[in-house]
């Protein structure tokens, strides 16, 4: 079978080349994602079989089943799905534009900035008896601002006649360490229960997601991801080095800024609603690369699906395995992802 | 002779140190021009600035009668392709995927793979002899093949001008000749203008129609190798004593450096004589 399939329409005004293998992988992952979504919705204290879950989606099921699924489970699972996708896409873009396989939201200090902002938020808006003086609803905004500020700081400090990938990474690591120190300091200074509240958030959890969260993050994340997919061609070219990218006609510096902006916005919205879920942004694009190669048109969607599966499964384990205790999803993203990640690298070490 | 690339009062610098000072250079179309000079003389810097990879401190670069800074990046990309020194491809990228990137300036989001794209990419793969290797990943190839893949990418860009910064560095002798033959053929068959930096003076003399020797922020000499490569020039540019002989196979200048080394010749001569 031929690996590529051409499509040309309207006398060649529209044309595209489809990688059959990548399409097949994407389709498989799409099915897995849907399966995980449905199974996860059915699991919990009250077990509901997948067929019933699907019927509830279309308005069937008992009133109790509808309540559990629609009010409790769906919002958090949708948030898990979207957050996984956003982090994976952002990580993929960062790795491509920085040309460093270790680049990820955590390494660049963007999640670190959000963590600092959250502990700062909890510290500033507390009165003497340690009660919050403003609604906790504002915390996502604080997280988003924190990551945006971190992203811009990294860019600003890395600037020297343009931004080079190495400087971005080094400055990112530096700022990340600084944010971590600030976060730890503020957690130690505050009361202990505040620290543990902050700690759960920093680890990353989709617990307590509401439909309002869903309606905020979904349009935002999906439009950003759409822009990212549109820019896949440009990320490809940037991956060949600044010189080659310039040679084929891209404005490297402008492109790098726009890509950093998109990734920061994606990371910001994820940490705002799910905290600092780690490792997904690093791991998902690597897994995708092993499956479909380095071309971003295929890599980004596949990363997104892998990210979604990772976070949904991590959340599923977190809320069912030690029930009634809730373990933040962030604990398990690394827990389930890392072994598979190492296996993949090990398996393909000679390829 | 039509002047294709021209620099006017071009000054290049890294920070405060001037690398090239008020240079006026004319690179003819349809020929192979080679920049030579000692390490750090600024020949690569000059090539990079012509390729718009480095912003000049002052002066202009004119491509086909148009100032480069006034052209859009994609417009330049359709006329001039650049292969930097030691390019690195992303992990696992296949030869075909790499060569396809050369079509970037012609593509839009809607028009991602036109029949022309396909034709040019396969033509480039054929010209570089990589058709059979097109599904291999670039990092699994040998040094020579890898360089061919990158050259194929610049060919797919379908430009009149191809600029290459030391395309033969890190290659063994066989592959150096292989790459230079390929570029020579491209010039002969497709009339592409090739501008490159080479380290090997003798190979430069053999393949170049036109040599540009760079020394002390200026051009020390420019012209046909047989006209300009002399003992004096080599002494000036490379600060080295040599004899200029004639290549017995090609008739081009052949530079034989003085130095220490073993001399077997005199003893052999003594035995024979």
Walkthrough of the structure:
Chain A has a two-stranded antiparallel sheet. Chain A starts with a strand and ends with a helix. The longest helix of chain A is centred in the N-terminal third of the chain and has 36 residues, at 63-98. In chain A, strand 1 (4-9) and strand 2 form a beta hairpin. Chain A is built from 14 helices and two strands. The mean pLDDT of chain A is 87. Chain A has 351 residues and is mostly helical. Chain A is globular and about 65 Å long. Chain B has a six-stranded mixed sheet with strand order 6-7-8-3-9-10, sandwiched between helices. A four-stranded antiparallel sheet of chain B has the order 2-1-4-5, with helices on one face. Residues 269-273 of chain B have low confidence and may be disordered. The interface between A and B is large, with 32 and 44 residues.
Features of the shown structure:
heterodimer; A: 351 residues; mainly alpha; two-stranded antiparallel ribbon; 14 helices; 2 strands; globular; B: 273 residues; alpha/beta; six-stranded mixed beta sheet; four-stranded antiparallel beta sheet; 10 helices; 12 strands; 27% strand; disordered C terminus
Q: What order do the helices and strands come in, and which of them pair?
A:
The complex is a heterodimer of chains A (351) and B (273).
Chain A (H helix, E strand, L loop, with lengths): L3 E6 L4 E6 H23 L7 H8 L5 H36 L11 H15 L14 H20 L6 H25 L2 H12 L7 H20 L1 H7 L3 H6 L4 H23 L5 H13 L3 H25 L8 H19 L4
Antiparallel strand pairs in A: 1-2
Helix pairs in contact in A: 1-2, 1-3, 1-13, 3-8, 3-11, 3-12, 3-13, 4-5, 4-6, 4-7, 4-11, 5-6, 5-11, 8-11, 12-13, 12-14, 13-14
Chain B lengths: L2 E12 L2 E12 L3 E5 L6 H8 L7 E6 L2 E2 L5 H5 L2 E4 L11 H7 L13 H13 L15 H14 L4 E5 L7 H18 L2 E5 L3 H7 L2 E6 L2 E6 L1 H4 L2 H8 L3 E5 L6 E5 L7 H8 L1
Parallel strand pairs in B: 3-8, 3-9, 6-7, 7-8
Antiparallel strand pairs in B: 1-2, 1-4, 4-5, 9-10, 11-12
Helix pairs in contact in B: 3-5, 4-5, 5-6
